[in-house]
Amino acid sequence: MSAGEPRPADILDRLHHLRAADAPTHGGRVLSYVYDSGVTELDELADAAARLARPLNGLDPTVFPSIAAMERDVIGFARRMLHGRRSVVGTVTSGGTESCLLAVKSARDLWRAENPTDAARKRPRLVAPATAHAAFQKAAALFDLDFDPVPCAPDGSVDPAEIIGRMGNDVALVVVSAPSYPTGLLDPVGAVAPAAADRGIPCHVDACFGGFVLPWWPKLPAWDFRVRGVTSISADLHKFGYAPKGVSVLLHGGPQARRRRRAQFFATTRWAGYPVVNPTLLGSRSASPLAAAWAITQHLGDDGYAELTDAIRRAATAVRRAVHEIPGLAVLGDPVGPAIAVVADESVPSAHRVDPHRLADALTRRGWKIQHQPGFTQSDGVRILHSAHLTLTPALDDGIDEFTGALAAASDEVRGVPPADARALARVVTALGYGHGGRVPGPRAAWTLLRLAGAAKVSADAPLATLMALVELLPAPVAEALLSELLARLSDPR
Ligand SMILES: Cc1ncc(COP(=O)(O)O)c(C=O)c1O
User: Fold this and answer.
1) Which of 208, 234, 280 to mutate to test the pocket of ligand 1 (most atoms within 8 A of CB)?
2) Residue 372 C-alpha to ligand 1 middle, in angstroms?
3) Domains in the chain, please, with CATH?
4) Cα torsion at 101, 105, 107, 108 (round to 10°)?
5) Distances (CA, A) of 8 to 12, 13, 47, 61, 233
6) N vs C: which end of the chain shows fewer Cβ within 10 Å?
7) Which pLDDT tens digit goes with each residue over 460-483?
8) For the stretch 211-237, what's the b/e string if a residue is b when 16 or more beta carbons lie within 10 angstroms of its beta carbon?
9) Could you give the 3-state DSSP secondary structure of residue 79?
10) Atom of ligand 1 at shortest distance to CA of 95?
């Protein structure tokens, strides 16, 4: 090291400085993205385990058998939690999206193998309620399936008959959520999965969000491997498993469990190097998130998760009660588990409504972050209202009175303020010809439009109501181009 190079301590100081601009990851003030158990000891255990496993490479568990041992334990824990039989097998992945991608890839490969004539002529379909996580659209795009979203009611609930009505020979996979992220609603797994099984169609339950909470939530209808026809389940350890980011499980059940899991794998001996067998999308893999998840599941066990789930339930009850008491604000649908979406109460005159995006911006000014969700008009024209999403964590339970107080005060501040109006901005975009005939702005034009919209500068405390209103108004490909450019520019070296 030469004298001119920065010292490790200076480098870490700089990182501390950079981290100061981040939204707080602990304390329950950010009600999305982060899943704080509120238990310091748990974070310390996860850090220590992650550090121990840091030099390993998950690429080859025959060289590093500790990885296979931890994986067996984690999959075994998840299997018991989800009432899977001994025939249920699984894989630890890098996160929810990867678990969902692999469930779809596996279903597609089996469909192709079982329908060779159809497969030569057409793409299979993936059927899911419109509220299913976007990871399934990504999977359909990457693995060449047609995504067939089933329209939901305005409150986000879905009629199982609508899903069942779409089950044809070309359906490779039906997906339901436990619960859905945007609404917190539990999809009708008990009606959909057996109907799929009767037609020979696999059914994936996406429990990425609720997988480590709903098993301890009382009085729920069965939604896991107890339901006939459920062939795979994804559950994220880096959400309510309380592990650091980078770890989820995908389990396969039913008569073809091993074949389904095998279809996720990529293996080749046809190159000049070592034989490659990848059970997931990545090659080299960090073992740190797995080790952290392993340590946490060992430490918490059933009782620990049950206790943390109780804290979430208390927070959920308190938040729902608070929203009920706030004039002009309402909970969307009847959520179960750790997510709630709030909307303007449309049963009262607009002068008394609380716009959820105005509310989210007002809460940001008060140091709390709830997540803006643009309204969504489905293929049948039915609109799911624009809302704000709240992920409720055990850490929130500790400061629940402060949060419900802030929710009430921020609602008072914005009650009667109309939703943000981005029509003038949208007119500029369309006047420039974007959105007509599928014309989408390229990187440079997208950046100019973002600057025009005043949305080119982002920060953890920026108001977002206008940007979200613009997203709602623009044709989806145009909005997607703008948002992609916004994110891409963030990592351009300065
Ligand atoms: C229901 C559901 N599925 C899938 C995902 C994707 O998970 P990840 O962000 O870990 O890739 C999420 C994330 O919030 C989710 O809530």
Assistant:
1) 208
2) 16
3) 48-295 (3.40.640.10), 301-414 (3.90.1150.10), 423-490 (no CATH)
4) 130
5) 6, 9, 20, 33, 43
6) C
7) 788 899 889 999 999 999 999 999
8) bbbbbbbeebeebbbebebbbbbbbbb
9) helix
10) 10
Which residue's alpha carbon is nearest to atom 4 within ligand 1? 96
Q: What is the C-alpha to C-alpha distance for residues 288 and 243, in angstroms, rounded to an integer?
A: 10
Question: Residue holding tokens 């997208």?
Answer: 446
**What separation in Å is there between the alpha carbon of 208 and the centre of ligand 1?**
6
Residue 454: CB atoms within 10 A of its CB come to 11
Report the amino acid identity of residue 327. Answer: P
According to DSSP, the β-strands at 329-331 and 339-344 are: antiparallel
Task: Give the pair of three-digit tokens for residue 243.
Answer: 């592990």
**Ligand 1 atom closest to Cα of residue 239:** 10
Burial class (CB within 10 angstroms; exposed 0-12, middle 13-18, buried 19+) of 122: exposed
Alpha-carbon torsion 5, 8, 10, 12, what sign? positive
CB of 263 closer than 8 Å to CB of 110: yes
pLDDT tens digits, residue range 412-433? 999 999 999 999 989 988 899 9
Rounded (5°) CA angle 284-286-290: 130
Is residue 99 in contact with ligand 1, taking CB distance under 6 Å? no
Give the C-alpha separation, 438 to 345, whole Å.
Answer: 35
453 lines ligand 1 (CB under 6 A): no
Report how far residue 356's alpha carbon sits from residue 375's, in angstroms, rounded to the nearest whole number: 11
The length of the chain, given as a count of residues: 494
